[in-house]
Amino acid sequence: MFLIMEALLLTVFVMAEENRSIKLNSGFEMPVLGLGTWTLTGETCENAVYEALKSGYRLIDTARYYGNESEVGKAVARAIKEGICKREEIFVTTKLVPWTSTPEDDIDDSLQKLGLSYIDLCLLHQHGSASGDDAVYRAMCKAVKASKIRSIGISNFYTGKTVSHFINDFEIPPAVIQNENHLKYQNNTLRDWAAKKGIYIESYYPFGGRGHTKEHLENPTVLEIARAHGKTAAQIIVRWHLQAGYIAIPGSSNPDHIAENFDVWNFELTENEMKKLSSLDTGRRYENW
Fold it and tell me: Does residue 224 fall inside a structural domain?
């Protein structure tokens, strides 16, 4: 019996290890679980990113709009200097706003602030004017050819129709679409459509976002499943994202919560539990970006 249990545990562990990253259509590997840094600033941001890297995270998400690229860069440099990780192990995402008139210069500025020679993933942050969107996307394609960016994508685009423009009208298709996704808004239609195109969906607000976290973490279905696994509600929600095929970037400045959100590799949700969680979908987003 002991040998059987040991084999089962090993199987779960190995499977979890294999699922920690996915290969993008750009050919590069991307971790499926990372730290979001929206609203984190100054030393709070730097310390959160550093603690995340210490806890095992290798995906860090920032944006020019957040105003914290320098702090993210400092944390990454600190972790590398201390031997916590190597640059090639870290996957840094940043985003460009569509209303900029200098997207090429913005990419160079982000590289300087991050202290990096290349950005792993750069996203068009959200829809602006058609000309603004196209200018940013063209600049990102150009930066890929110059080896300043490895993979590109878009954020806050929620239908196949709006995404198709970036697939059909540019040389390099999006590798990732970063959107609001959580138990109450799952957008399986876009996820399944994008998968057929070789594009992954990344979830920001995996716990519902600020102002809605409590209703997610205190949901009776989530708590029931958490008790069954001896896990926290947050860990159940993160695990649901990963098993549902999403990349997830929960944000936190609390070192304990950062570590807790990453401790999801030693268990699996059952098919029935996944169905229960999927049934919580209301089809409504909290934001209108």
Answer: yes
**Has 66 been annotated as catalytic?**
yes
Residue of 241, 189, 179, 245 whose CA lies nearest to 216: 241
Integer angstrom CA distances of residue 77 from 34, 70, 112, 169: 17, 10, 13, 37
Decide if pLDDT at 137 tops 80. yes
Q: Which of 66, 158, 204, 246 is catalytic?
A: 66
pTM above 0.90, yes or no: yes
- Helix %, strand %, coil % for the chain, to 5? 50, 15, 35
| Residue 150 within any structural domain of the chain | yes
Give the number of domains in the chain.
1
d(CA 220, CA 198): 35
The tens digit of pLDDT for each residue in 35-90 reads 999 999 999 999 999 999 999 999 999 999 999 999 999 999 999 999 999 999 99
Residues of the chain with pLDDT > 90: what percent? 92
DSSP 107-174: HHHHHHHHT-S-EEEEEE-S---HHHHHHHHHHHHHHHHTTSEEEEEEES--SHHHHHHHHHSSSS--
The DSSP annotation for 16-34 comes to HHHTTEEE-TTS-EEESBE
Q: 3-state DSSP call for residue 208?
A: coil
Distance CA 250, CA 23 (A): 21
- Establish if 23 belongs to a structural domain: no
Q: What is the CATH number of the domain that holds 264?
A: 3.20.20.100
In a domain, 11, yes or no: no
pLDDT greater than 70 at residue 12: no
Range of the domain at 129: 29-278
Task: Establish how many alpha carbons lie within 13 A of residue 83's alpha carbon, considering only the half-sphere containing its beta carbon.
Answer: 0
